[in-house]
Amino acid sequence: MNWQIRTVLAGILAALGLYVIFNPLRVTTLVVGTVPWLLLTAGAVYLIAVVMRKWRRPITMILPAIVGLLLVYAGLSMKFGDPRTVGPIGLPFLFALVLLGGGIAKLLTTLDVRKSRYFLVFVGAGVISVLMGLIVMFNWSAVSAGFLGVVLGLELIADAAYLAAFAFRDRDKEEHREALG
């Protein structure tokens, strides 16, 4: 996938994230209509990015694909089932697992981009996802609806920064230069 398409996808994720951050209570009260579509969109963007990315190491492809599939499953389960659960699991707990999985996947991909000038963006996006996942995981029974909306918005922005860093890395042809030595 060329860097322009990735940049547009990152912009879409960032816009969705900003919308959620500025409307956390509204978004969480509209769970039945809005959040499932946000999850489906984020999952689709993850899966499109995985499919269009050049194959390097299987782990850097498998983990983001799993996160994308989990996001799609969560969106479909909330859309067609109980909006407070995804299957038999409560939304805050599952959301924490998705955040942790996404953060770990992002951090694992940093092994391939250590020489990139966008390295700190990759690491920052992964760390933000892991930290938010841990906060939700260990406080999941006390998490408010507004807080979940803010966390979802921050995660979408972290995903947008991560995807944009890959786009700019492709634009700058860093991977090609690393291959040449």
From TrEMBL:
Lineage, top-rank taxon, reads: Bacteria
Tell me the keywords, alphabetical order. Answer: Membrane, Transmembrane, Transmembrane helix
Positions of transmembrane segments? 7-25, 31-52, 59-77, 89-108, 120-140, 146-168
Give the protein name, as stated in the record.
DUF308 domain-containing protein
Organism per entry: Sphingomonas daechungensis
Task: Name the lineage.
Answer: Bacteria, Pseudomonadati, Pseudomonadota, Alphaproteobacteria, Sphingomonadales
